[in-house]
Amino acid sequence: MTWRYALIIDPVATDVRGTDHAATFRVVDPSAPALSIGELSTQRGDGIFESIGVVDGHAQEVGPHLERLAHSAALCDLPAPNLDQWRDAVAVVASQCPPGECVIKLILSRGIEHGPTPTAWVTAAVAPDNTAVRERGLRVVTLDRGFDSGAPVRAPWLLLGAKTLSYAVNMAAIREARRRGADDALFVTTDGVVLEGPTSSVILRFGDRYITPEPGAGILHGTTQMSLFAHLRDLGHDAAYETVHTDRLGEADAAWLVSSVRLAAPVAAFDDVSLAVDADVTASLNAYLLRPRD
Amino acid sequence: MTWRYALIIDPVATDVRGTDHAATFRVVDPSAPALSIGELSTQRGDGIFESIGVVDGHAQEVGPHLERLAHSAALCDLPAPNLDQWRDAVAVVASQCPPGECVIKLILSRGIEHGPTPTAWVTAAVAPDNTAVRERGLRVVTLDRGFDSGAPVRAPWLLLGAKTLSYAVNMAAIREARRRGADDALFVTTDGVVLEGPTSSVILRFGDRYITPEPGAGILHGTTQMSLFAHLRDLGHDAAYETVHTDRLGEADAAWLVSSVRLAAPVAAFDDVSLAVDADVTASLNAYLLRPRD
Questions:
Q1: Is B173 in the A-facing interface, judged by CB distances under 8 Å?
Q2: Is B165–A42 a contact, with Cβ atoms under 8 angstroms apart?
Q3: Which domains, from first to last, does chain B contain?
Q4: What residue of B is the nearest CA neighbor of A120?
Q5: How many CB pairs under 8 A join A and B?
Q6: Which of A116, A198, A275, A276: CA 20 to 30 A from B102?
Q7: Is the Cβ pair B43, A107 closer than 8 Å?
Q8: Which stretches of chain B score pLDDT less than 70?
Q9: How far from the centroid of its chain's Cα atoms is residue A60's Cα?
Q10: Is the confidence metric ipTM above 0.90 for this complex?
Q11: Helix axes B223-234, B62-75, angle to 10 degrees
């Protein structure tokens, strides 16, 4: 049985400073019943989450993940999370993680139907072995995300910048990619603007220039992408946010899908167009991502 | 404390004919822990559901609800539900319902992460008192659903005809409607085609003709709408599926948002255009919907 761990935060969103947050954490058996059937997360995907990579007990980029949790909460009209409480919970869970790579998930649900407060819990598990995924290239298919590039600003109720628990479409897109013989998907708008993968950000390299789609274009602002951009700039590279049209995908000199647990996975093809996998740069990016980062 | 009831179906999707399905039902306390934190319904809204109205212990339109559950399962690549098993579960739960109106929910989740089988449960609760909602008119705002009318056929991975647990956008749309001082929302496509409410179908009356948007246009095929159309045709009315453009909304002689629990709620306004509430027809429709139906 693979190692897993879970704790429930109760109560959440308490604003009291100096509270002994540990007293609000209750360790639960990950495989035993812990949530009631009235949970809105189960009935309506009504809540938000974050996935944080852990390397040898160090939770990576906790600050940016917590900032995004707060941003998602605001977009979804959830009470502002008490970030100190969440940070303490992550520290407790990370301290339990075995050596090697793990994943911590933060979940903030709207709570019990008609209940007074949200429900929150944090889980940890050993990460799948992504060694091969970080070396061999992914075959990626572009999939229409249904909306045009104006939708995120025009219709904020579509929650396009929030990391909600309503991930059924993201999961369906990955199944569609597999059905087409590919490994993963890349969402694009109806007007041909590149968005993100179902569980990743995309980074493209043109010459010595690294680009990624503008945050705010209906995508999440990727924590791993942000960290890599800071790293690339430290190394003297140009790394920029740009609107990327689909016809530029095949012209990239290299590309990666990046996320908190899989890290940087090189792209070997977008649809029918092959891309070179830059093994050296990929190895260097993953070496950086595997070092402790805050 | 309002009455609630719940049972878990375990195992689900067993194909064995003549199985004693009752042996697969386990009654659980609705407010006690019953689901593990590894449930994909909680983490990704990855599953499907149905809400069934119950009147004096009679579950309404169980057949059409089960057919739609099977349709949603197919769209989401979930194992085909064993409809006999679900029907028996609904019967058990309905037999526990107190007199008056209740709601039964069927939930089929993809199950535990990396687990072998889906998770399924059925809940029941006393329905909210919808008497007033069925008489006074709802103020309804139209909200852009983000996609155009071609998206459902072009991009089936958007799961637009499936009743999935990923309902965060539906809930956000209702909050947006309330923020605008309205009672409910009506989704429309970017090219101005009327879809459905976040938790309802829309029926419009022009003269003696009742129309509703085409199923397959990125909406659910409403069980209450179907039942009402059969009833209206029995009464000699014309009831038809049509593509409805938003500019026709204000020209309707009457309109209703219809759903399994709220039943037929008359519309008093679409955006800034007032509609007459036809109290007699509305009362007649709801009298029909409150009679036992199979």
A1: yes
A2: yes
A3: 4-126 (3.30.470.10), 138-290 (3.20.10.10)
A4: B37
A5: 198
A6: A116
A7: yes
A8: 1, 14-18
A9: 12
A10: yes
A11: 140
